[in-house]
């Protein structure tokens, strides 16, 4: 299998393709949906950055292959599929929590079990002190936090918009 040989021999090329392909899906999301769901996605990205620092400190996993900037271990994942994926999942399921939860649980299961094994097999990463089940629980918890943050954000923005409309309608003394 030539494709598998190339991926095994050039995992950094695979990371670049994963990163670029994820970003190329964003124009199909729509500008309005992108702006609407960006706060929840950025919130999750912040959590992932903290998680990345903790992973180094507590040796949860080790990243062997990276793309620039090299000081962020999981950059190819965080700026690629972990950025585009939540935007798409929120776009497709927001307002229907059960569907959101199920889709995230399935997506996280695919990421944590077969994809994680694949990444280990081609030499991109290795799980250390955190096992796959713990990683799965962490991913699902992040998804619930992201939904909660997005819900809070939208309610705050809705309330602010209503207050602004009331202020504009009141007569100026």
Topology:
Elements: H1 2-9, H2 11-24, H3 31-58, E1 61-63, H4 75-78, H5 81-93, H6 97-121, E2 125-127, H7 132-169
Antiparallel strand pairs: 1-2
Helix pairs in contact: 1-2, 2-5, 3-5, 3-7, 5-6, 6-7
Structure overview:
The chain crosses the membrane at residues 12-31, 37-58, 70-91, 97-114, 135-153. Keywords: Membrane, Transmembrane, Transmembrane helix. With 173 residues, the chain is mainly α. It has one domain (2-23, 33-156). The chain is built from seven helices and two strands. The protein has helices at 2-9, 11-24, 31-58, 75-78, 81-93, 97-121, 132-169, and strands spanning 61-63, 125-127. The protein has a two-stranded antiparallel ribbon with strand order 1-2. Helix 3 packs across helix 5 (81-93), helix 5 packs antiparallel against helix 6 (97-121) and helix 6 (97-121) crosses helix 7. The radius of gyration is 19 Å and the shape is elongated. The mean pLDDT is 91.
List keywords for this structure.
two-stranded antiparallel ribbon; mainly alpha; 7 helices; transmembrane; 75% helix; transmembrane helix; single chain; 173 residues; membrane; 2 strands; elongated
- Nearest-angstrom radius of gyration? 19 Å
- Which runs of at least 5 residues are low in confidence (pLDDT < 50)? none
- Look at the helices and sheets and give the structural class: mainly alpha
Largest sheet at a glance? Answer: 2 strands, antiparallel
How many discrete domains?
A: 1
Order of the strands making up the biggest sheet: 1-2
| DSSP E strands, number | 2
Mean pLDDT: 91
In DSSP terms, counting alpha (H) and pi (I) runs of 4 or more, how many helices?
Answer: 7
Assembly level: single chain
Percentage of residues in DSSP E strands: under 5%
Transmembrane segments: 12-31, 37-58, 70-91, 97-114, 135-153
Keywords: Membrane, Transmembrane, Transmembrane helix
């Amino acid at each position: 299998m030539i494709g598998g040989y190339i991926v095994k021999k050039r995992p950094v090329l695979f990371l670049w393709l994963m990163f670029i392909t994820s970003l190329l899906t964003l124009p199909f999301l729509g500008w309005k949906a992108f702006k609407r769901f960006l706060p929840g996605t950025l919130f999750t990205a912040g959590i992932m950055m903290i998680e990345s620092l903790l992973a180094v400190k507590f040796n949860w996993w080790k990243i062997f292959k990276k793309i620039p900037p090299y000081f962020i271990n999981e950059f190819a994942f965080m700026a690629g599929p972990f950025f585009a994926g939540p935007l798409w999942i929120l776009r497709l399921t927001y307002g229907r929590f059960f569907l959101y939860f199920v889709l995230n649980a399935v997506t996280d299961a695919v990421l944590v079990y077969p994809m994680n094994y694949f990444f280990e097999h081609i030499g991109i990463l290795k799980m250390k002190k955190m096992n796959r089940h713990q990683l799965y629980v962490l991913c699902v918890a992040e998804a619930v936090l992201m939904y909660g943050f997005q819900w809070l954000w939208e309610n705050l923005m809705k309330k602010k918009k209503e207050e602004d409309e009331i202020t504009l309608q009141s007569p100026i003394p």
